[in-house]
Every structure is written in C-alpha cells, then in structure tokens.
Recover the amino acids of this structure.
C-alpha cells in the first residue's frame, strides 16, 4: 500500500495512518492523549535544538533516516552538557511512498529513541505531491534537554591552554557509507549513526572537566576545530598518526581523493578537556558504547592574536605541518 494525498487530509485515512503506523511504535502516556501540544515536566535550564533530515538514500548501510533523526537531535543536546529528555517528530511524506518503507522508519526512530533515553512527546504528518521521482520522506525533529543548575558551562569559547583534544572514534564512516551506496560501490563500510548518550553521561557522572564538545557532522573534524580555535582565541595542534580512521575508509578515500578530516559523521564527537583529566576521559569513552576507538589527537595552545591568526595545524606523518582550514566549497549533500 502506498501513501496517497488522502493520508494528509486530516480525515479517516489520516486517522488510520496514525493508528496503524505511528501509534504502533510511538506509544506512551504523553502521546496517547493525542493532544495538539504536550505538557511535560521541566527544569530551570533547558537546551533546545531543531533539525531536519533529508538524507538520500533513506536506507543505507548501518542506518536509515529514522535512526539518524534521533541521533542527530540527541547528540546536539548532549554537546551542551544537557540530559536529553523529549523529542518531537514531523514526517513530510511524498505521495506514493510505500507504507512498509514508512513503517520501517517509524520503527527505527522509536527504537533509537528508547536507546537514547528520550521520550517522543508530539509529532505531525503532512503529505506532499510527488515530483516524478522515487517517493521519499523528510523528518523534522526538535529536542529538549535538561541542564542541572550546578553544571559548568560547556562551549567552543571555553578552551584553555594545554587542553587535550579527544576524538570519540573513527572518522568518515557515515560520509563514506552514503557515498558508496549512491555510487554502487560494494564495501563493508557502515554508517556510524549512533546516540552518544552513554559516553557523555559517563563523562559527566565522573566529573571530567570538559571545556567544549561538538558532534562531528557536516564539515567534519576540520570545520569543528576551526570553530573552536576562533571562538577561544587559540591554536590547535593535531597529530596525523593519532587520527583514528578505519582501513576501509582510508582505502575508499584514497580511491576517490577524499580527506577524512572533512568527512561527515553521525556518531562521533570531539571534546577539549583539562589536561589532568585527559587519560581518565579517554578511558571512560573507550569503555562506553560506541567509543572503543577513541583517541587523544591534539593539544590546545592559547594565543592573543587577531581572530584570523588562530589556526588548526596537523603534524603530518612525514614530519611536516599542514594548516587545516575550514572546508572549502560544498561537501557531499543530503548526508543527514
């Protein structure tokens, strides 16, 4: 059975779609009230984020758009030091979308929300005309996280001299998986799409002195660290031999002339921590879910130069130095 314009009419077909697909997986005391807005408990300080997911294809090795929409939202909340609590989801469906395909995405979204420890509290569905291509869908989400009153501020402007830079795992997996799928290249690369809840919660519980965190998505590690350097008036030195990249992704990058430093990920984060806490932080991440390949990759050096003088430098394997600037031009589109 396919999605039709009647499914977006607000009538019997809409009710049946909600009952047969969404309510089957999105089932909790808040949603079951079927109200236009959700009333939930709150906190003194909130982290709020919103995102839209347009990835193509919607099914890819290691994940799909349903799982990705939760990972992207939850991970953004975690990077502020908050505890993700609630998410919303809006589905924009193209006429002709197979209902089995839709149900698979709803199921994946529901399962990932449970894994991440968040509650889906409200949502929406719209149907739009098909423009003559294979019918797809877009998912829009918003998320709310709670920040404890005694939590220290975490952000890109908080890096300190001699902070240690840690990366939670291998670079480039998601980007490579999407591109290989589009190009019909057969390999064993899978997307790293994953909620980072376990690693971040463990770091916070152990009182690691985290000064900044950011999930490494579009623009890659190079873009994130340049934002850190500019915001905190510092230089960041990286070490090429410390950057974790799987052999499969290295080979894939070599084939296509790609650089893992600028490739998108959906289950990795980079953080700047107090040097005395670095080894402990690394151990915590490696013992957490999805963090087994974490590595210390660099160090922060503060300076008081003008903003355009703050740089990220890679110490290469052959003994040279390479300046890592912001990503130039457009990266691979529609990867999230």
């Amino acid at each position: 059975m396919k999605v039709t314009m009647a499914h977006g009419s607000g009538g019997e077909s809409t009710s049946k779609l909600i009952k047969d697909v969404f309510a089957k997986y999105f089932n909790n005391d808040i949603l079951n009230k079927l109200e236009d807005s959700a009333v939930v408990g709150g906190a003194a300080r909130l982290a709020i984020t919103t995102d839209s997911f347009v990835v193509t294809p919607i099914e890819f090795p290691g994940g799909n758009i349903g799982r990705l929409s939760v990972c992207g939202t939850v991970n953004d909340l975690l990077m502020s030091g908050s505890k993700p609590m609630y998410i919303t989801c809006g589905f924009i469906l193209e006429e002709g979308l197979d209902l089995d395909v839709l149900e698979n995405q709803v199921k994946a979204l529901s399962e990932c929300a449970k894994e991440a420890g968040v509650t889906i509290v409200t949502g929406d569905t719209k149907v739009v005309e098909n423009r003559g291509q294979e019918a797809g869908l877009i998912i829009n989400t918003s998320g709310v996280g709670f920040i404890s009153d005694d939590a220290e501020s975490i952000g890109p402007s908080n890096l300190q001299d001699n902070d240690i830079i840690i990366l939670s795992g291998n670079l480039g997996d998601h980007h490579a998986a999407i591109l290989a799928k589009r190009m019909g290249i057969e390999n064993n690369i899978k997307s790293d799409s994953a909620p980072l809840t376990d690693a971040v919660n463990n770091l916070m519980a152990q009182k690691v002195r985290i000064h900044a965190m950011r999930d490494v998505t579009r623009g890659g590690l190079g873009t994130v660290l340049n934002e850190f350097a500019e915001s905190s008036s510092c230089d960041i030195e990286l070490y090429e031999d410390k950057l974790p990249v799987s052999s499969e992704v290295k080979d894939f990058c070599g084939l296509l002339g790609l650089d893992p430093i600028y490739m998108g990920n959906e289950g990795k984060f980079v953080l700047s921590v107090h040097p005395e806490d670095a080894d402990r932080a690394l151990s915590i991440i490696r013992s957490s879910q999805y963090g087994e390949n974490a590595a210390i990759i660099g160090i922060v050096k503060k300076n008081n130069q003008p903003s355009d003088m703050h740089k990220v430098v890679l110490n290469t394997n052959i003994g040279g130095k390479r300046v890592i600037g912001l990503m130039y031009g457009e990266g691979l589109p529609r990867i999230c």
User: Anything to note?
Assistant: Residues 5-147 form a domain with the 60s Ribosomal Protein L30; Chain: A; fold (CATH 3.30.1330.10).
